[in-house]
Write a structure and sequence with these properties.
The protein is an alpha+beta fold. 48% of the residues lie in helices and 24% in strands. The protein contains 4 helices and 5 strands, in the order H-H-H-H-E-E-E-E-E. A 5-stranded mixed beta barrel has the order 1-2-3-5-4.
């Protein structure tokens, strides 16, 4: 056991921390593993056990304190790529048949959609460009 340097034990510890990282998908284990690698580097330079433990703690705590809040913030964000009807809101459509408060037809994203005006008193004639503000079922609400 004395033939194996302490840096090897830190690397074994890092690998051991990698196992629950893969199994549980908890990134904190990965951060602890990086701390163990930092301690292995300190041990490879011949510094003592106290310096190794301090390196492990400093790097691990720093990663958890810095990376974890950033990861949490990103996990709460909505995806930037919108799909489905959400992707159609805000797009322009071309009126194919007169659109008013009771109905009509528009060409939206290359497809023909039933449509109605958001303002029931307003009417849009064929050829006009309108903006889609909402989708209700299979009907585009336009202004």
């Amino acid at each position: 056991m004395d033939d194996i340097g302490s840096w090897v034990w830190w690397l074994v510890g890092a690998a051991a921390l990698g196992i629950p990282l893969v199994v549980t998908a908890m990134p904190e284990f990965g951060m602890l593993a990086v701390g163990a690698v930092a301690a292995a580097v300190v041990a490879a330079f011949g510094l003592g056990a106290v310096a190794q433990v301090i390196a492990f703690l400093v790097v691990s705590v720093a990663l958890v304190a810095v990376v974890r809040p950033i990861a949490n913030r990103h996990s709460r964000q909505r995806p930037r790529l919108v799909t489905g009807i959400e992707a159609l809101k805000g797009r322009q459509a071309v009126v194919l048949e007169r659109v008013d408060g009771s109905g009509g037809r528009v060409k939206l994203a290359g497809e023909v959609w039933s449509a109605r005006a958001l303002d029931g008193d307003r009417a849009y004639e064929a050829g006009q460009e309108v903006d889609v503000v909402d989708i209700e079922g299979a009907t585009a609400i336009v202004i």
